[in-house]
Amino acid sequence: MRIVLDAMGSDTCPEPEVLAAVEAARLFGDEIILVGPVDQLEPRLQALGRENHMVRLVNAPDTITMKDKGLALALKAKRKGSKTSMAVGIDLVKEGQADAFVTAGNTGGALATAYYRLGTIPGVERPALTGLFPVRNGYCVVLDIGANPECKPEHLLQFAVMGSVYASKVRGVPQPRIGLVSNGEEAGKGNELVKSAYPLLEASGLNFIGNVEGKELFGGNADVAVTDGFTGNILLKSSEAVAKLITDILKEELLSSLRTKLGAALARPAFGRIKTMMDPAEVGAAPLLGIAGLVFVGHGRSDARALVSAIRTARQAVEVNLLTEIQTAIQERLAALTLTTDSDRNETDHD
Predict the structure, then answer these.
(1) What's the rounded Cα separation, in Å, for the pair 351 and 341?
(2) Residue range 179-191: average pLDDT?
(3) Which of 149, 164, 220, 247 could form a disulfide with 135 if both were Cys (CB 3.0 to 4.6 A apart)?
(4) 1-119+291-320 belongs to which homologous superfamily?
């Protein structure tokens, strides 16, 4: 297996990427292709004993940074001769020289580069950034969490199909329960997007359980939750902020006296499990589902441990042949929905 790692993605690049490439190659026994300025990467690898690791360097002298916006970003992402680490790395996937691409860089840059250079799976109009939210008794696959601020109902249907495949094949969830994020459980609740998407999901043949509010999502009632990128991104950042607030308050209270310190010591194993469950570094990266290639985006604050986790997540997707599974599922669901729509239309005409 060959995994591309963008050496110029994280906030403190390239140190975490170099360490992660070496560790992932040792841990998984796979070739890790580190893409970035070779003159910066070579000495760092040599200092770590590069000859003992399956790390290959590919030169990419340019970088998409957080400052790149609008036309400048689009040109870096789209133009044929682009030498950014994202463009060069994603081209390796496109050319069949690598199986997946991982970056902790500019999310918009990764999305634009992947979209322009790989395109989308037939039947998918919008790729979705897909996150794993810690919930009661496990995780919930939530999409979109930021790639598409504005969506149409059919986009949410496509998200649901892709999320279901991801939950089933990568997370090992049989018959994933699909929920539609809304401000009420009843079918008639929600904005126009939610109301219009509801019947599409209901007729999709997926294991659709209806609308889910925040309490159902975090209560573990759904395995997959679909929403537009604007709502999903607010949901993600709000949940991260609340989790940090609760953790900080608990830490302050538990260290406030000798008695609470003793209690904290006794409860340390439980707190450790909670910390692990809520740690983004455990998953490492979110897949861009719907792209015609495997692309994973991690947090800019990723350290080497988070990037190794991101590579592990990418490997899992390759192992279960995620791309082909999504392509097949999209075609099957869309065909079934077309047949249902045609049947309903014929009955209406007959009446």
Answers:
(1) 15
(2) 89
(3) 220
(4) Isopropylmalate Dehydrogenase (3.40.718.10)
